[in-house]
Design a protein that fits this description.
single chain, about 280 residues, four-stranded antiparallel β-sheet, binds zinc ion
Length: about 280
């Protein structure tokens, strides 16, 4: 599932080719993408819009239009956005939408599992949309401080990993980067979120940023479906310290990496470096 580094990789490679372009034809092939709205209604609204920029908030890709509207794309499990369109896409049954731009190029939205969503917001609706979903701070922005993370975790009794996954403490972290961040911070994934000491919260804040920045530098992690907008694979999977490494030695202490489950998700950690509270 694409997390902040994967979405950011897609965003940065889409932006130069999309900015300033007008949408001349919008073909939405899968009604699940826009429901409850019918795809014809959404494509009619999008046609003629000119792209002002491509942004990201958490795991949302945001296409900003000159009209002030925003198209929010959430890739969920297996969504990808490709531009320019790859060869052979006519035979690709996983293509859910094709957008023709005024330079003649196509943007292709591909999604194997079909959980991705497109939502068109009217001018002024964006901030309220994220507030209503209690989306936390952007972890790579200046406002994401130890104090802000401590405030977001205070009083919460759920495991710290579950708190990272629910997007309120910080936006954009999923299963991979949560495990990697907790390893950097030497914090056990099952530690109650509100019980972390001040120095552990500081280490977690730094660990989150370290894991996400490395993910962006490696252009994301390609485990199965994820590709950058130009079709390229990421290489973050070669940098994992714990994720998916059960039984392999910890890169810090040599202890075999252990696996457990937190919030229903496979969770990897070093039982020596990350002691339970
Ligand atoms: Zn270790």
């Amino acid at each position: 599932m694409p997390e902040l580094p994967e979405v950011e990789t897609i965003r940065s490679s889409l932006e130069p080719g999309l900015t300033g372009r007008r949408l001349v034809r919008v073909e939405i092939r899968d009604p699940r993408l826009t429901r409850p709205l019918p795809p014809e209604a959404v494509s009619a609204e999008l046609t003629g819009e000119r792209v002002a920029g491509v942004r990201r908030r958490g795991k949302y890709l945001i296409v900003e239009f000159e009209s002030g509207r925003h198209l929010l794309v959430h890739l969920r499990m297996t969504g990808t956005v490709l531009h320019p369109a790859p060869e052979g896409r006519e035979d690709d049954t996983h293509v859910r939408a094709v957008v023709r731009l005024d330079d003649g190029s196509d943007v292709v939205y591909r999604d194997v599992r079909r959980f991705g969503t497109w939502e068109l917001l009217e001018p002024g609706e964006l901030e309220g949309y994220f507030e209503a979903r209690r989306l936390g701070r952007e972890p790579l922005e200046r406002g994401f401080t130890t104090a802000s993370l401590a405030a977001a975790l205070a009083g919460r009794r759920l495991p710290v990993k579950a708190a990272l996954l629910d997007q309120r403490a910080a936006a954009g972290i999923g299963n991979i980067y949560a495990d990697e961040a907790l390893w950097y911070a030497r914090v056990h994934p099952l530690a109650p979120a509100g019980a972390l000491a001040a120095d552990e919260v500081a280490a977690l804040r730094d660990g989150i940023r370290k894991a996400l920045r490395l993910g962006i530098r490696r252009q994301g992690a390609t485990l199965r479906d994820y590709r950058g907008a130009d079709g390229s694979r990421g290489s973050m999977q070669d940098e994992f310290h714990v994720y998916g490494r059960e039984g392999e030695p910890c890169n810090r202490c040599g202890t075999p990496i252990a696996k457990t489950r937190v919030a229903g998700r496979g969770t990897w950690y070093c039982p020596a470096c990350q002691q339970p509270v």
